[in-house]
Structure formats: C-alpha cells, structure tokens
Amino acid sequence: MSSGHSHPDHNSHDKAMAESEDVSHGRPEKNPGAGSVDLVGSLTEAVKLPVAREAWLFVAPLLAAMAVFWFFGNTPVFAGIGLAAGYVVVFFRDLDRETVRDADRILAPADGRVIAITRVRETAFLNEECFRVSIFMSLIDNHINRLPVKGKILYQKHKDGEWLPADHNEASERNEKNGIGIEGEKGNIYLEQVAGLIARRIVSKVEVGDILEQGDRFGLIMFGSRVDLYLPTKNITVEVSKGKHVYGGLTVIGKYND
Question: Which terminus of the chain is less hemmed in, N or C, by CB atoms within 10 Å?
Fold first, then answer.
C-alpha cells in the first residue's frame, strides 16, 4: 500500500450517485449509546455470548419487560417478548469466521443475496468506472460487516437520505448511507453501508487512518439493509452473479486481473 496517498477532501468532493452531505451528527456511530454500550458490552463479555455488543441495547429492555409480565403472571405476553428477545440475539449473532486472506481477491463485505451488478461511475472516492455489486441483507441474514480487502481507511462520509426498502432499485442513490474508501494492497475500492426501510441505524467502527486485515469487522446495519461494493472495472473481474447468496469475509466477490 502507498502510505503517502491522501484521502479526498470531504468539503470539496463531487456527488456519488446522489447528493453528498456533510458528516452527520451521531451517524454513523462509532459507539452508539455511549455509556450504555460500555455497560452492556461488559455484560456481553461476562457471559461470553457470541453477539454484537449493540444487541444489548434492545435485549436489556426486553428482558426487563419480561420480568414485569412474569411478576404479574401474564404468561402470553411474557412468552411473546421472550421470542422477540430471542430473535434479537439471533439477529445480532457475531460468530468468528476463518477468513482465507488473499490480496488477489475481494471478499464479500456482508451476508446476503446479490440483487444487482451494474456498471456505474463512482465519484465520491474512486472517480472512475466501477462494477457496483449490491448485497441485500434480509432480516434473517447476519448483519456484521467485514472488510473486503486488507487496507487503510482513507475516506469515510455519512449522507442523510430516505428509507426506501433496501432492495429497491433507487436505494443506492436515495437512502441514508455511509461511504468508506479503502486503500488496498492492489488498489483502492469503495463501499457503502445503505440503510433500509426498517434499518434506521448504521454503525461504523472504523475511522480514517485505521488499518484492518481482510475479513475484519468494521461495522453493522441494524434490521434489514444493503451494502454496495464498488470495484474498478480496469483491473477487477466480478466472480459472482445476480441471485447468489454470499457470506461476509468468506465468499469471493471479485479478483484482480494482474
């Protein structure tokens, strides 16, 4: 990687498929919930549950509600809330994965189904023609996001927007999203975490200047969403087709031609 590369100026950059706005206040969230996440994160570590720390922001109130309805003997409501809590735990599952790291290959940044592969000109970070591989994460997919390549975070910018269904054709341009530009070992790539109809919170756990390994966790999107991966057409071949189900940090999305 070239350590001398400087990331784009956030204030003077062009649009990327839609109008680019200033970085929002509070989103993407490095540590959503601040003190609350620290407390529940400690609980996660204590009980060794393989779930993302953010899950406890939802599970803790549900458990409290279960206790109340159990105390008053309302078994049906108690059971319903218990099912909801169980679903949240499953949704936020965060199991370790054995990523086979390879500088010649670009891995999936998320679990889900490839809903579109299009050629577009990406102008927020790469400023060149790219393949845009759109991965839709349903409510039963794992929503942990993983870095497609080993690299340095050169650019990150959040854009407010709408909440169209994440699999909508115009979601890439119109929805709220967080863009991340990565300087990889064999070239730069760009991706966007895109919020959906239900997903209203994008969590990014990286900052400009961070260096991560291929397959490392970098964030998540809560409750149904999408990740768009932008790969330059000049030196990358896409290895998946529309409709394929992919797995973050495991499935090969593209490979470098040289």
Answer: C
Q: How far apart are CA 145 and CA 109, in angstroms?
A: 5
State which residues of the chain have pLDDT below 70. Answer: 1-49, 51-60, 62, 69, 85-93, 198-200, 223-224
Picking from 101, 96, 130, 132, the residue whose alpha carbon sits closest to that of residue 114 is 132
Q: Which of 114, 201, 189, 192 is nearest to 150 (CA)?
A: 189
Which residue type occupies 131?
F
Asked if residue 50 lies in contact with residue 95, where contact means CB atoms within 8 angstroms, the answer is yes
CA angle 212, 230, 254 (to 5 degrees): 75
* HSE-CB of 41 using CA atoms within 13 angstroms: 10
To the nearest 10°, report the CA torsion of 101, 103, 109, 114. -110
Residue pLDDT, tens place only, 77-92: 778 777 776 666 666 6
CATH architecture of the domain with range 105-256: Distorted Sandwich (2.70)
Can you list the alpha helix ranges (DSSP code H) found in the chain? 35-47, 56-71, 75-91, 171-174
| Entry pTM | 0.70
At 69, the amino acid letter reads F
d(CA 129, CA 235): 11
Active site residues: 225
pLDDT at residue number 59: 62
Give the tokens for residue 38: 């620290």
* Cα(130)–Cα(233) distance, integer angstroms: 5
Q: What is the 3-state secondary structure (H, E, C) of 114-131?
A: EEEEEEEEECCCCCEEEE
Phi and psi dihedrals of 48, rounded to 5? 60, 40
